[in-house]
Amino acid sequence: MSAVEISNIRKSYGGVVALSDINISIPSGSFFTLLGPSGCGKTTLLRTIAGFHQQDNGSITVATQRIENIPAHKRDVGMVFQDYAVFPHISVSENIAFGLKQRKVPKNEIEKRVSAVLDMVQLKPYAARMPHELSGGQQQRVGLARALVINPKVLLMDEPLSNLDAKLRVDLRRELRGIQQSMNITTIYVTHDQEEALAMSDYVCVMYGGVIQQAAAPWEVYYSPANRFVASFVGANNFMKVVLTGEQASISATKVTLPQAAKNGSREGIVAAIRPERILVNPADDKSDTISLPVKIRQVSFTGREMAVAATLSSGEEIEAITQPTPDIIRLRPNDDAIFSFATQEVQLFEDGATGARLS
Amino acid sequence: MSAIDSLPSRSFPRLSRPGFWTVITALAVLLLAIFLILPIANVLVISFFDANTGTFGLSNYWQVLTRRFYTVALWNTIVIGLLGMLGACLLGIPLAFCTSRYRIRGRAIIATFAVLVLCAPPFIGAYAWIMLFGSNGAVTNALKTFGIAAPTIYGIPGIVMVFSLKFFPYIFLMTENALNTINKSYEDAAENLGCTAFQRFYKVTLPLVFPAVSTGAIICFVLSIADFGTPAILGRGIRTLSTIAYAQYTSEMSGTPTMAVTVSMLMIAISMAALLLQRRILSKRRYASALTNRPVKKSMSPLKSVLVHSFCYLIVFLAMLPAFTVVYTSFLATSGPVFTGGYGLGSYARIMRDSPQAIYNSFVFSLAAVVLIAIVSGLLSFIVVRRDNAVSGALDLLLMVPYLIPGVVMAIGYVATFRHPPFDITGTVLIIVILVFIRRLPYGVRSTTSILRQIKPSIEEASINLGASPAKTFLSVTVPLMMPGLIIGSLMSFITAINELSSTLILYTARTVTMPVLIYVQVIDGEFGTAAALSTLLLLSTGLCVFIVFRFSERKEAAFV
């Protein structure tokens, strides 16, 4: 449909920078997710695209049209809201027809299009209902149908699933992605739920402090995080201080061989990151090219599919492993000694600090 | 589409075409500047020019603060204000405690009576008490036949009693609401930590409802010192600032009302000081909490039940007594000002014959003011709630002003401001309608504001996002959703508008006389029969509005405070 080009968008509120120099290029028809903790600027960016905030600087281009100075009601970008924002005083079908009426679409065509979109979101039987008679999930379908029916150039969604319960959230996210793919509509989606972002998106754009940290495909963001913030925010991660003395690196007073560290010479403030699911607890045989660290178990918790084993390194740092629930691991008790080991090539090195750069 | 595509850099500069809400905000500022700020500023300026010499300075204030004539009135005003407030607290707080903590039969009746007392014309109380306990009152005469001297109703004790009975509903309704929304866990925790029932009330419950009590108390205080009708009717030589402001105004009629204005400024200063003091005390006390554990109402032993019920009903019965007296009196047969014994509709026949103009005026003026209030408060509340800028903040603050300015002061300001051609509107219908509109606008705005805060802004954003312009969004989405608040606000404004006395008394002419003015004049002339008939009419229309508000409002009584 339409590609979106955001360049140099800047926005601050009385000295506080909410967005600093945002540059994003979104290919036509893709599902693009803005992911970040609250206050990172993702919603501000989305609302700037919708026209509810005026940027201080920069441009927004949809297809070939510059839209950053067009009033919000003339932008032709569909929006789905976190709290549904279904008009409570008119029926479901009137809600969906609202945007078409503003566009002076002929009456019979309105009926046709409303009916088609009702089919798509499976709300045909509810057309005449009032919003308060619908469940949260159904109301959000109305919100989606209302935004889709106007054939917007871009679809904006502001945490549309966060007010729904967990089970419904997963169902609706599949459905949403299905509709988006079948309509091939360019979508910008805001969420703080990393699992949701990874599961739905063509591209995930991680934001923090009004700055884009990384924008890439979901697996790339997960396996190849650009910096320490992305590594810690997307998926769980363990960070351990690396001490370099000459050519020799050590973690938690254990000498380790880190080929990645060598090229950085001897420098201070390096942390090693290892994903919990990459850690083996008390492995039977000691393979080469692994790092094995002695730990004291703090807590073992069974979550059904897997076990979470929390432990403390001899340096006092905390570390967590996620493994298959085997009888040996279930038997572990607090203060037991254990060995956590992981392959050397799975370790990623970062500069210390919230958004420390990737070193390997 | 291609037309826009060919102009990729087409922009809509913000300054060249001001948006809908910018225009509305500018108009709102203009409206309040002319009809609210200008008259008050005029009053303020006049007060600085010496009454006799015309020189600029503080000489008027010096006079008011040193001459006995004024200092006595100042003292009386403060004493009456404080005692009235205290009396209202002593009636309102225990009543609120009883109805919120015990199972009271007919709580709805008690609340309805409280609201009716609140809404009834303020001066009705004064003269109804005269009819009962005055020099020639029914109770006074009855007691005289037994050789007992009735306590006098005139003077400060009488005024304080009328104010206490008239204003306690503010305390009662606000405190009761607060008591009902205290998380019971606090009281449970206090009990668990070893507090006795009394300690619990004194150390936990009362401090928690203090914000509500003090807000109610400050309203009572401000209304007590601003009230004109009650001290004018019951005063008998006791001067208060509001009565001397009016008296000075009528004696200075030909010239500049300098001294009336100076006295008025003093009244405003007292109200403001009280409000600021209360805000300062409250600023350190914010007790927001989730209502996870609702208070429960206890049942009582039979003896306690009888005592508590009698206490509750006695208070509301005493407060409603003036209204009952007025309605009863209106059906007494009269010959001129004299009651002839027996019953009849003579008083009603007389008001229909002699004063249809006042009845007609009252309804037309109030309705006109209410239509204006409904429109303006809808727009204003949107600016205040949704437009987050310095101007909207200032408007919000400005809308507090009419609460604080006594009607007498506003009216004097209007006369001083709008008497110069070509804007000379003194003596017209317009000046009364505009004044009532401005004075009662905050009631409308408060009601629409509170409902607008419950409407999520995303609903309006959805409408804009779907292509409706801001003006169209307001009309087709916001207004329908605000409707309950608009209706309640309009009814509340109507109630206060139709009972307006203190400002219209200064502005009225033979053509623009209203029912409250006529009632006041007739009471002063001793024409109690027709005054009662007119008052009954006022009570009836007020009661009707209260009834409709009850039907529309979910929070019922709470809508009135």
Primary descriptors:
heterodimer; A: 360 residues; alpha+beta; Rossmann fold; OB fold (Dihydrolipoamide Acetyltransferase, E2P); 2 domains; 6-stranded mixed beta sheet; 5-stranded antiparallel beta sheet; 20 strands; 33% strand; B: 561 residues; mainly alpha; MetI-like fold; 2% strand; disordered N terminus
Short description:
The complex is a heterodimer of chains A (360) and B (561). Chain A has two domains: 4-232, Rossmann fold; 236-351, Nucleic acid-binding proteins (OB fold (Dihydrolipoamide Acetyltransferase, E2P)). Helix content of chain A is 26%, strand content 33%.
Net shape of chain B? globular
Tell me the name of the CATH homologous superfamily of the largest domain in chain B.
MetI-like
CATH topology of the largest domain in chain A: Rossmann fold
Average pLDDT number of chain A: 91
Assign the CATH superfamily of the largest domain in chain A.
P-loop containing nucleotide triphosphate hydrolases
Architecture (CATH level 2) name of the largest domain in chain B: Orthogonal Bundle
Q: Which structural class do you get from the secondary structure elements of chain A?
A: alpha+beta
Task: Describe what you observe in this structure.
The complex is a heterodimer of chains A (360) and B (561). With 360 residues, chain A is of the alpha+beta class. Chain A folds into 2 domains: 229 residues, P-loop containing nucleotide triphosphate hydrolases (Rossmann fold), CATH 3.40.50.300; 116 residues, Nucleic acid-binding proteins (OB fold (Dihydrolipoamide Acetyltransferase, E2P)). Chain A is 26% helix and 33% strand. In chain A, helix 2 crosses helix 3 and helix 3 packs across helix 4. The longest helix of chain A is centred in the middle third of the chain and has 18 residues. The two termini of chain A are 38 Å apart. Chain B is mostly helical and 561 residues long. Chain B has 2 domains: 245 residues, MetI-like fold; 272 residues, MetI-like fold (Orthogonal Bundle), CATH 1.10.3720. Chain B is built from 25 helices and 2 strands. Chain B has a two-stranded antiparallel ribbon. In chain B, a hairpin with a 2-residue loop joins strand 1 and strand 2. In chain B, helix 2 crosses helix 16, helix 2 packs across helix 17 and helix 4 packs across helix 14. The relative contact order of chain B is 0.12.
